[in-house]
Amino acid sequence: QAQPAASTPPGFPAGFLWGTATASYQVEGAVQEDGRGASIWDTFSHTPGKVRNDDTGDIAVDHYHRYKDDVQLMKALGVRAYRFSIAWPRVFPQGTGAANPKGLDFYDRLIDALLANGIAPWATLYHWDLPQALQDLGGWESRDTARAFADYAGHVAARIGDRVKHLFTHNEMSAFIELGYGQGIHAPGLKLPPRRLNQARHHAVLGHGLAVQAIRAAARPDVKVGPAENINVCVPVIETEEHIRAAERATRELNAGYLTVMLEGRYTEAFLAWTGADAPTFTAEDLAAIASPLDFVGINIYAPHNYVRAAPDAPSGFALAPITAGFPHMQTPWLKVGPEALHWGPRHVARLWDVKDIYITENGCAGTDTPAADGIVYDTDRVMFLRNYLTQLQRATAAGVPVRGYFLWSLLDNFEWADGYASRFGLHHVDYATQKRTPKLSAELYREIIARNALA
Ligand code: GBH
Questions:
Q1: What is the pLDDT of residues 242-265, one digit of tens each?
Q2: Is 178 a catalytic residue?
Q3: Is 362 a catalytic residue?
Q4: For residue 408, what is the enclosing H or E element?
Q5: Of 177, 179, 327, 413, best ligand 1 pocket probe by most atoms within 8 Å of the beta carbon
Q6: CA–CA separation, 202 and 198 (whole Å)
Q7: What's the 5 CA to ligand 1 centre distance in angstroms?
Q8: Which NCBIfam families match (predicted)?
């Protein structure tokens, strides 16, 4: 009787960059310290009824004071890169004007601690904590916010570009605009009518483009820049050529206001037809700035946006197949389990826009993580999730898709925006009463995957 052969786990390309990620307001705390100004998330979380249990980021996981210990947690995982974000209101408390002399001190210390431990710092310039003073002037509805963002980006790039070689402009324009200015469930909590919402969308992409230009002007030439965008991934229902091409076309259209305009320098016909009389006002110069050449494209992928079929008779050539009510999801209902998204997302990006360097800048899941009697957090749901998603990522790299690295969200349980502390995304459990960090089972799995550079 033949025995099954011992399996060699499929590997990732040599030099594949394994990392982990966080964001300022979700982890730092210390919101009153060292001259930080208020952000829209301070205002929003302190408005009763906006965040689950009225949680705030006032203390969060105290990363501002515990960063040295947290760097040791990263070192134990074996990650070679840490994606964190810089709080704009620490650097410019009023958004513009005079820089706070202490504004970058914390990041200087963090960057130095990372480098001393062999971990590359990858910094995001905007992960949603807009200075409240700028919101008071219209926030992303105002063109001036895009300009102010570029000035801030140039300032930071000039200051830390000696040590930080990878900068991200915005984290998930689509999320902060759609949720913050469209649905009202994130800061600043607005539900704008279509015309104003489209203009805010345009200012977000414009801010990205102007920031790329400002960084190029201010930083050394070896500083690389790109976005970290929450791409809507369309998965072909069946992996045949016709459905794959349809999913690719759908991905282009479903990201038309964000990634597509950034990479093509124009709004698609379908997008302009859809916005109609409510289309944003923009110039040819805006589009040129928005399409400033990038060094890499970062994409955050959690769940498939849609499954797609070819529809030869439809003008678009595709039809969306709904995510059904019974579709499996992780602890947070929005996080549908569709590991193929991690294969098709980067694959569509590479083929649609000929992108040569792609990073998965976020992927992970929430789980009901409670330490067991033996002190271990048995997050088998997250272990299942990571193994299946990374299997699909490996498949993409094996097919030659130029994915260069992966940042797992998140290093620690943290302030999950409107969900407050109820949703835990960390590889490390945080006891919020004591701030004690405990590695979960998934941290052990991730350490093993990194050590082997292969599935485990
Ligand atoms: C990312 O957003 C963020 O970059 C990161 O800060 C965040 O912690 C992480 O993902 C996990 O959420 O409750 O059904 O109305 C991903 C985009 C935005 C998707 C919030 C889920 C809530 C949808 N997420 N959204 S719902």
A1: 999 999 999 999 999 999 999 999
A2: no
A3: yes
A4: strand 403-409
A5: 179
A6: 6
A7: 41
A8: BGL
Q: Given a cut of 70, is residue 118 above it in pLDDT?
A: yes
Q: Closest ligand 1 atom, CA of 425?
A: 11
For residue 421, what are its two tokens? 């502390």
Give the separation between CA 149 and CA 300, rounded to whole angstroms. Answer: 21
Residues with CB under 6 A from ligand 1: 23, 26, 171-172, 175, 179, 185, 230, 300, 302, 334, 362, 409, 416, 425
Question: In this predicted structure, what is the pLDDT of residue 202?
Answer: 98
Q: What's the alpha-carbon Rg for the chain, to the nearest Å?
A: 21
Measuring from atom 26 of ligand 1, which residue has the nearest CA? 334
Residues 6+ apart with CB under 8 A from 71: 82, 110, 113, 114, 117, 119
Separation CA 139–CA 151 (nearest Å): 15
Size of the chain in residues: 456
Paired tokens of 333: 């209902």
Active-site choice (28, 141, 178, 362): 362
Give the pLDDT of residue 2.
Answer: 67
Distance from residue 7's CA to the centre of ligand 1 (Å)? 36
Residues 6 or more apart whose Cβ sits within 8 Å of residue 137: 144, 145
Q: Which DSSP category does 364 fall into?
A: -
Residue 366, token pair as written in the block: 């929430």
- CB-side exposure of 370: number of CA atoms within 13 Å? 4
Q: Quick one: average pLDDT of 165-181?
A: 98
Question: Residue 173 corresponds to which amino acid?
Answer: M
- What ipTM is given for this predicted complex? 0.95
| Residue with CA closest to ligand 1 atom 13 | 334
* Residue 228, strand partner residues: 171, 298
The answer to whether 231 and 345 are in contact (CB under 8 A) is yes
For residue 366, which atom of ligand 1 is closest to its CA? 11
Q: Which two tokens stand for residue 215?
A: 């960084």
Probe target for ligand 1 pocket from 44, 176, 183, 300, with the most ligand atoms within 8 Å of CB: 300
Opening angle at CA 157, ends 258 and 262, nearest 5? 15
Across the range 90-113, mean pLDDT stands at: 98
pLDDT in tens, 292-351: 999 999 999 999 999 999 999 999 999 999 899 999 999 999 999 999 999 999 999 999
Q: What is the pLDDT of residues 57-80, one digit of tens each?
A: 999 999 999 999 999 999 999 999
| Tokens describing residue 115 | 């480098």
- How many whole angstroms separate alpha carbon 431 and alpha carbon 423? 13
Can you read off the two tokens belonging to residue 246? 């349809």
